[in-house]
Design a protein that fits this description.
This protein has one helix and three strands; from the N terminus they run E-E-E-H. With 69 residues, it is of the alpha+beta class. The longest helix is centred in the C-terminal third of the chain and has 23 residues.
């Protein structure tokens, strides 16, 4: 991972028509260069699936980091 890049994650829940959605925006700014933004609208089901995948990956990474070489 590039430790010189800054990553910002922004979320917002809002109602569109009759359904609530989650807006997800990820912005990565390298030390030198222009920032890159990715925006997505997610249903609550997609948001839950994404959260579960992130939790699993985070748990795996933490487990590997705690292992003795």
């Amino acid at each position: 991972m590039n430790k010189e890049a800054k990553t910002t994650i922004t979320t917002k829940a809002y109602k569109e028509a009759t359904e609530w959605l989650v807006s997800l925006e990820i912005e990565v700014t390298p030390k030198e260069g222009k920032p890159t933004k990715v925006r997505s609208l997610l249903t609550t089901e997609q948001t839950t699936e994404l959260m579960n995948k992130i939790k699993f990956a985070n748990y795996t990474a933490k487990s590997q980091n705690h292992k003795k070489p």
